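During the reporting period the student researcher (J.K.) took over the structure-prediction task from the postdoctoral fellow and processed the backlog of single-chain submissions. One of the processed entries is reproduced below for the supervisory committee.
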Amino acid sequence: MSDGWVLGGGKPTPPAGPLACVELNSAIGKRDLYLRENSTDAGAIKQVFEEQQYAVAHLFRWAEISEFLARKQRAGETPLIIDAGANIGAATVYFAVHFPNARIIAIEPERGNFDVLQKNVEGLNVRCVQAALAGAPGRAKIVDPGDGQWGFRTAIAAGKDVRENDLACVTIADIYAQEVKPGVFPFLVKMDIEGAESDVFTGDVSWIKQTPLFMIELHDWLMPKAGTASGFLKTIAHEPRDFLIRGENIYSIAHQLG
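J.K. obtained the following structure tokens:
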């Protein structure tokens, strides 16, 4: 583990119930990854570490991306990664292993997932944010459709529906405003937010032009006729970017990396 890495998100609340763990052997050393038994956590870990759904080294343009990162590192710059819909942090840890110089913001709305996420990223350069990713600031509610711990959704709360314990909404533009500064540059956004992408792309989408690599799972398959993908497709259609499909995800890579 590299010197100077900091605890992500403060001291976690111990998750309710016993946790199992799997040991990861990685470039940053051996590391335990915690999960809840009889849950969807094992499936999330399998998608990330066995099926390699967020692997970028297989990409035809990987040599170019790697050289871009190396050039930035030689200039003393740190890549910023946003993991939106972080769940228990499997993808967050994956990114930390494969991009050990990165600063990572992990966004997860549901409290049980968030607690395990915090435990899984202890000691890494990760800031955990319990919030709903959205197109504008506001408040949101957790919706449980019964699909397990990886299926929680968020719904924007407005007017009389707003309650004191509702989640805060965060936007990628606001995160960039906070985190991107001299020495820190946007690199990668991963988005798996169970249909809430329909709201995200109604807001400020200027961050797309700043983001070399973008990974998104669209959810028209899960919510037929809801149009959850339409905002993304309209936003991205005229951008000079490449599009690839790997597993459940669409990869979007800027023609010019910066």
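The committee noted the following: The chain has a mean pLDDT of 90.
J.K. will present the remaining backlog at the next meeting.
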